[in-house]
Structures are given as structure tokens and as C-alpha cells.
TrEMBL record:
PANTHER family documented for this protein: UPF0060 MEMBRANE PROTEIN YNFA
Protein name: YnfA family protein
Pfam hit, one: UPF0060
Organism in which the protein naturally occurs: Actinomadura fulvescens
Annotated family: Belongs to the UPF0060 family.
Listed InterPro entries: EmrE-like, UPF0060
Origin: domain of life: Bacteria
Recorded topology in the membrane: Multi-pass membrane protein
Subcellular location: Cell membrane
Residue intervals passing through the bilayer: 33-50, 62-79, 91-108
Length: 110
């Protein structure tokens, strides 16, 4: 149950951070305005809180592992929201990053 909770928290963090960054991008680069920017800032702020709910008490470990989730999540967001089509190197890189998440967070310790 702890691993499932951790994975769900990583997914929520990715949604908040990537979604927030996308909203800011849309507000500034696509000229969608201050509402998009404000919503993005709020989402990015929410992301900052989500990691604190991870069961592992080590900030460095949690944020290092989240980096891999962010990489894969960013590619997935681009595919779903912006029509981006990753090439095989994007996919391979994301797979390596997700393997790193598994090793960092869930490898047996002790």
C-alpha cells in the first residue's frame, strides 16, 4: 500500500508541476493572459506541498526520484495535450528515468 500511495503522490506532483508550467507557458508564450499565469502559479505552489506527503522521509531521495517522473510525465503531457510525438530516443530516455525512480525509491534497503 505504501508503494501505491507513493506512486499516486508522484502522479499528483507531476500533474501539478507540469500542468502549472504548461499554464504559465500558455499565458506568456501563447498570449492567453493573466488567468492562465495565475492558475499556473497556484498549481506550481500546490506541487511544492505534494512531495511532503511521500512516505520516505528523505527530501533528496524523494526529489531525485521525482525527477524521473517529471521527465516521463512531461513527454506524456506533450503527447496528450500538445500533440507531441516522441521518437525512440525520447521513449528510451523516459524508460531509463523511470527505472531510476524504481531503484531510488523502492529498492530494498538495509
Amino acid at each position: 500500500m505504501t508503494v501505491l500511495r507513493s506512486l499516486l503522490l508522484f502522479a499528483l506532483a507531476a500533474l501539478a508541476e507540469i500542468g502549472g508550467a504548461w499554464l504559465v507557458w500558455q499565458g506568456l508564450r501563447e498570449h492567453r493572459g493573466v488567468i492562465f499565469i495565475g492558475a499556473g502559479v497556484l498549481a506550481l505552489g500546490a506541487y511544492g506541498f505534494v512531495a511532503t506527503f511521500q512516505p520516505d522521509p528523505n527530501f533528496g531521495r524523494v526529489l531525485a526520484a521525482y525527477g524521473g517522473v517529471f521527465v516521463a510525465g512531461s513527454l506524456a503531457w506533450g503527447m496528450l495535450v500538445d500533440g507531441f510525438r516522441p521518437d525512440r530516443w525520447d521513449v528510451a530516455g523516459a524508460a531509463v528515468c523511470l527505472l531510476g525512480v524504481l531503484l531510488i525509491m523502492y529498492a530494498p534497503r538495509g
